[in-house]
Amino acid sequence: MSLAPLALESAGADAAFLLARVLFGGILAFMGLNHFQNAESMSGYAEMKGVPAASLAVPFTGGMLLLGGLGIALGAFPLLAAGAIAVFLIVTTPLMHDFWAVPEDQQQDEMTAFLKNVAMLGGAFVFLALAGTDWAYALGVGL
């Protein structure tokens, strides 16, 4: 595996990177699946947050999460997969988890969700930066 400047060329590093991909991508794919399984309640929440066409936005973003997460986990179309996750998080994090604009009793929950998304955005940027490198144990298709 070639992770250019990092030079992580060992079986342990390959296994750790695979585990990171599976954990990160799997959680994102699960979150995307949740958009479909709970579309009605999620659409209501999105509507309450002012999302236009929430009943269309929820399955669309669910698809971004599901396909992006699977792409990262499997090492398929890594640029597209990590890019979809990054775009999703950049757009939805301040829109859906605006802790500064909610009543005080909701601020802690929204701040926790906001910070979780920011941490995941950092992970998405790492995978985006590594998208042009060879990923061990990856399907290795696409950009």
TrEMBL record:
Q: Which residues cross the membrane?
A: 15-33, 53-74, 80-102, 114-138
Cell compartment(s), UniProt = Membrane
Keyword terms, alphabetized: Membrane, Transmembrane, Transmembrane helix
Query: What membrane topology is annotated for this entry?
Result: Multi-pass membrane protein
Gene Ontology cellular-component annotations: membrane
Listed InterPro entries: DoxX
A Pfam family recorded for this sequence: DoxX
Return the protein name: Quinol oxidase
The organism encoding this protein is Natronoarchaeum mannanilyticum
